[in-house]
């Protein structure tokens, strides 16, 4: 009996094999390859004449399509297809404006008194941020600047322990390692106390986090979602558009945003990077309401059922804070053709009279930002840029090095941070305006990622950021143009190639 079954099985296998090979024999591969080439050509036409991409991005993708003619169109579908025509976030501009009017108890996006010199001087930046992102200026805020991962999580855990009503958490990278387990355990305790917990994380940034590892949280009624979740394994046509924001709000009274994610490396425990130098804000006051809006809009964008969505209301937001610190929270992303945070950076660069200090782990500015920085340098502005010494992503590292070398030639002071890895994303000008958040100085943050930055209009705060920058210089090495010129031929080749593909990095 077993022999007969085996014989039948052999017949079945051989039949299937014969059938498959006959199909391949019937295929005219010349026709298939011709179809692929036609698709490539049509895509190239679409990129130039229909999709309205930037010139540099268009040429970069056309180069990819013709260098890899049979793979290029797949890469474009996954990494290059723009999504600004899609309706991703549920709330309209009018709903955002009404929410902020209720939150701040005023109709106008900002109010300026005669003694508010910084706000008066930079009212055009405030207006720009309102016109692009419908962001209101809040004034009654208090912040704590955090530059160390251990301190950040100590403060965050203490605030979570004191939560009474709800906890909203959103990160690009969320890991269940040492610090991640501590966070999840603490959240499990709060769930047992009746506190509502909502967690939103990026599907690609947190790809190592399995759903099964969150089972204990979901059993205790935590609400958890992934941003732009892959519908099929290894296939995600929105893979290139990631939610890079870092947001925590607790009871509408306390908020966190900045550069730190959740993982042991942010505590300096990764041997590759060593000490992790980052910057985060702990916020109390009216600006927490703006953080809350951003989280709810992001959460609801991934909630297909009405029952899963959060209500947009400002009734429970923000215990009054008696401290003057004007803040605008500006979000940007590929859902809009306007590069909102980049426009604000360009304004700050163009308005600087004394100095421009920039810290970014990835420094790959587009032509408009490079031109603005060059004009600032040539007009006598003290331009200083600080980037990491250790590569996080190799191509990004070599592209970054080529851009800072070009600015060093014109007179910018460019620094390599030597004391571990610097991940801070910050720009400050003239002891007046500072911006800190999730957005790097690169094409990806300007155009491809969903980002969030706080713009602060305050002498004291900007001076504090300036002090931190100068302290970081003590742990950095200056890259003079003479030193940059001494790099080897191999490094020059790496830079040239990385810079060529920089618009799609």
TrEMBL record:
Its EC number is 2.7.8.-. The active site is at 244, 246, 251, 423, 425, 430. It is an enzyme of class 2 (transferase). Keywords: Cell membrane, Lipid biosynthesis, Lipid metabolism, Membrane, Phospholipid biosynthesis, Phospholipid metabolism, Repeat, Transferase, Transmembrane, Transmembrane helix. It is a multi-pass membrane protein. The chain crosses the membrane at residues 31-52, 58-79. CDD domains: PLDc_CLS_1, PLDc_CLS_2. It comes from the Bacteria. One of its GO terms (biological process) is cardiolipin biosynthetic process. The keyword Translocase does not apply. It is found in: Cell membrane. InterPro entries: Cardiolipin_synth_Firmi, Cardiolipin_synthase, CLS_N, PLD-like_dom, PLipase_D/transphosphatidylase. Belongs to the phospholipase D family. Cardiolipin synthase subfamily. This is Cardiolipin synthase. The gene is cls.
